[in-house]
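One thing: mind reviewing this one?
=====
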Amino acid sequence: MTALFALATAVLWGLADFGGGLLTRRIPALTVVVVSQVVAVVVLGAVVLGTGAWREAGPQLWFAVGAGLVGPVAMLSFYKALALGPMGVVSPLGSLGVVVPVTAGLLLGERPGLGQFAGIAVAVVGIVLAGGPELRGAPVQRQAVILTLVAAFGFGAVMALISEASSSVTGLFLALFVQRVTNVAVGGAALWTQTRRGIPAVPAGAGRKLLWGLLPALAFVGLADVAANGTYSIAAQNGPVTMAAVLSSLYPVITALAAFAVLKERLRTVQAAGAGLALAGTVLLAAG
C-alpha cells in the first residue's frame, strides 16, 4: 500500500507541476495559485462536512495553518520558475525539499548516515551543473534556479508541517482543508494588493473569459496537488517513511516526461546530467 500511494503521489505532483507551469505562461502565477486553491477549498469543504471531519479539530491544526502560510510562497516561486523553464531542470531541483526534514532531524540530535552525506554532495553538484551553463549572461535562468530553491525549501517545510497536523484519514481531510483555506487567505491578500498597485490578475484585454476558459485546468492543478498531499500522508502512515519519501520524490520524472511529450523540450547534455544528479541526490537523502 505504501508503494502504491507513494507512486500515485509522484504522478499527481508531477502532473500538477506540469499543468501549473503551463498555466503560468498564460496568466500570472499568483492567479494560478489562488484560483486553483479556491477550487480545492470548495471540494475539501464538502468532504469535511460529508465525513464529519470537523469533529477532529484540535491544537494540531496549527501545523496545518503553518503549512498554509508557507505553501503559497513555495507554489508561487515554483510556478514562476516553471514558466521561465526549462521544466526538465526546474522540476528536479524542486525535489530537493527533502533537505528540510534532514535539517530538522539534525536540530533534534540525529546524525545523517553516509548515504545522506553523499546525497547532499550529489545534489549540490547537480544544482551547479543544471543551472551553471545558463548563468552566464542569462539572468532569467539564474532567477529560475533561485526561485526553484526557495520553492524546494517551502515544499519540504509544508511536508514536515502537514505530517504533524493529523493522525487519521478524516483528520487529514480537515488538516488539508485548513491548509488550503490559509493558502487562499494569504494568496488572495497578495493578489488583492497586487491589483491595487495596478498589476492585473489576468493579462490585459483577456478578462474573465480567459479565466473561465482555463478553469478546468486550474481545477485539475489544485485538486491534483491536494490529492498528492493526501496520498503522501497515507503512504507515510501505512509503511516506512523512507520508502514513501523515495518513491514520492520521483515526481520530477513525470514532469520532465510530460514536458518532453507535450512541449518537445530538449535539454543540453550537461543540464540533463545535472537534473539527473539532483534527483539522484534527493533519493540518496531520503533513503540514507
User: Anything to note?
Assistant: The CA atoms of residues 84 and 144 lie 6 Å apart. DSSP finds twelve helices and no strands in the chain.
